[in-house]
Amino acid sequence: MSALQAAGITTRCDLLQCGRESSDEELQRSAARVAAAAVIDATKHVLGDHGPRRSFVLARPPGHHASRTGVPDEGGEGDFAEGGCYYNSVAVAAAAAQQDGVDRIAIVDFDVHHGNGTQEIFESDPSVLVISLHADLRYPGTGAIEEVGEGAGAGFNVNIMWEGSADWPPHYADYAVAVKLVVLPILQAFRPGLLLISAGFDAAEGEGFHAKLAPESFGAMTESMLTALPDVPTVAALEGGYVPPMVARCCVAVMGALLGDKVDEPEETKISKLSESKGCKATLLKVAEAHEAHWGESANLTVAKVKAFFEGQRERQKGLPNAFRTVSRLVSCAV
């Protein structure tokens, strides 16, 4: 909170204060209930007629690993608590919005871990689009690109898993290309009435996972989605992130974007960084292959489109001095 105050964020927000801080293990479930309630309250706030249309929920514990069934406990009973998550706050808020009459909801999750709980809850629901950008990690062991949804929900679960990312930690340039080619076109084709962002910051450099994003990267991704969906009520809710100073900087960046501040383009958008990434092209080609049947026509997400983009990138690099090899606003809405 001190970082938000220092950045002048708190003076520009309506603060809805819920609960209290707690680190006592016995209070974790009650804290989780307060966190889930806070996301629901924020969602109702942005969907109302008189409140602001954007909100950030600064609450813990996170929620995106919690599912309907979860994993068996020692007694063999199902427990939906998993990965430090007790209640899937974003999923519960989405369900509450459905009950309030919102017919299409988009959830974008950029936590470095796959939101397995969110996927499990909505994988058969075509009214909830779930897009996750995550690393190839042992935990939770889900989130493969081929997992596109079940039954009527096929195509509405989009996993952008940076396969083999232990060997090539993705930078913002990789995320920016994924946002440009996959995330924004699908969001605009889906036309949600509500956007929920599972804002995990453990993909930040220094967090110790297979990604190296600067705080501005999360602000830039948020800004790009808001630009693509300018009139859509939006709630971002804190998920992962384990280095407090870095989490604070990431929160400031995302909240600034929600408030309409201009986000400085992260340094990692240099084409040299993009060219160093071994798996970006392979990952996005695989995503296009998995979803061309679902989004090829409405969102222009095709294998040919992805190939053409990377061919164009290679041509644009030729003859340019290194100092000018930057990706120009990859997070713009134009595709």
UniProtKB/TrEMBL annotation:
Q: Name one GO cellular component term.
A: histone deacetylase complex
Coiled-coil region: none
Compartments where found: Nucleus
Query: From the UniProt record, which GO molecular function terms apply?
Result: histone deacetylase activity, hydrolytic mechanism
Main localization (coarse): nucleus
Q: Where is this region: Disordered?
A: 52-75
Domain Histone deacetylase: start-end pairs? 30-257
The lineage's top-level taxon is: Eukaryota
What are the BP-aspect GO terms?
epigenetic regulation of gene expression
Write the record's keywords in alphabetical order, separated by commas.
Answer: Chromatin regulator, Hydrolase, Nucleus, Repressor, Transcription, Transcription regulation
Entry EC no(s): 3.5.1.98
Identify its protein family. Answer: Belongs to the histone deacetylase family. HD type 2 subfamily.
This chain belongs to the protein called histone deacetylase
Specify the species.
Emiliania huxleyi (strain CCMP1516)
